[in-house]
Amino acid sequence: MFSFAFDAAEQARDVVPVADIFYQALHVPVAPGVTVHVQRIHGPLPGPPVLLLHGSLGNGRVFYAKSGKGLAPFLARQGFDTYSVDLRGRGGSRPKVSRRADYGQTEALLEDLPAACAAVKQMNGAYPRFWVAHSWGGAMLMSFLARFPALRSHLAAAVFFGSKRVIRRDSLGKKLILNLGFDTLGSLLARVVGYLHGRHLGFGDDAESKKFYRQTRSWLRGAPWIDSDDGYDYLQRLQAISPLPVLHFTGVRDRVMAEAGDIRRFMVEYGGRDSELRVLSRDAGNHKDYGHIDILTEPAAVDDHFPQVVAWFKRWDQGGNHR
């Protein structure tokens, strides 16, 4: 399905044991002098492949720590073969985002993610069977599916943490953080600096190009689900694809970046008739009232809601060979 030059044998030497699992940093070429970092984490007998994608102003480290903690290591211990992607310029991808960066969401969808999937296929022997996303990564993965509908035959299910496509500005908190912060201050900083970093805004831990920021902001504000480069209609294409079962998580304290109402509207938009939303809170029996980031980084999540990820994958898997 995807054709990218990637030497799997060359990458095989970079395997590092971390307790009972293995870390392997893959550097996948996507353009001359440009590589996308994919962190593979697996157990002794890698099972079905899982692709994990970060959100806006983030990178793949939201899914793992070098110490062996996080969702990706948890899944690896359950027998899954995990691949956490750093989109172009983020995390371990090179070169880093700078004012010269001229790429955005479109390039991520047409080049970065196909290259990552090609690497998964070469390393595991199969394309990703499951997807995991945090925040904006959910909108990106559903757009990726719309661009490449043939992926659907390889996919069993997905789990999204705090993912939406549009944020309705229906509260004071949303208006302050998004209108004044992400929109107004973000636009100014992107023009002056030439790109946007999370530290500029006080949230997020990585940078994104000016084009990526512009495309993200447009969709978040409610622009049609259409690509600004070539006019590709993602929504129209998704409506013709068999719905992907997605388990959505959000935290009860996440009232701006992934408020439950915005997630439900996202589910309706992509046609999530087999999807579910679970709001994590003490009242629901969870360890704590979760927010946007600790939904993935809280140590107690391993015993709290991470097992629900595995249960969802097993529920929709037909023929998987994980434990």
Automatic annotation (TrEMBL):
Serine aminopeptidase S33 domain segment(s): 68-280
TM helices/strands, residue ranges: none
Coiled-coil ranges from the UniProt annotation: none
InterPro entries in the record: AB_hydrolase_fold (IPR029058), Hydrolase_4 (IPR022742), UCP037442_abhydr (IPR017208)
Alphabetized SUPFAM superfamilies for the sequence: alpha/beta-Hydrolases (SSF53474)
UniProt keyword terms in alphabetical order: Hydrolase
Domain of life: Bacteria
GO MF term list: hydrolase activity
Protein name as catalogued: Alpha/beta fold hydrolase
Natural source organism: Acanthopleuribacter pedis
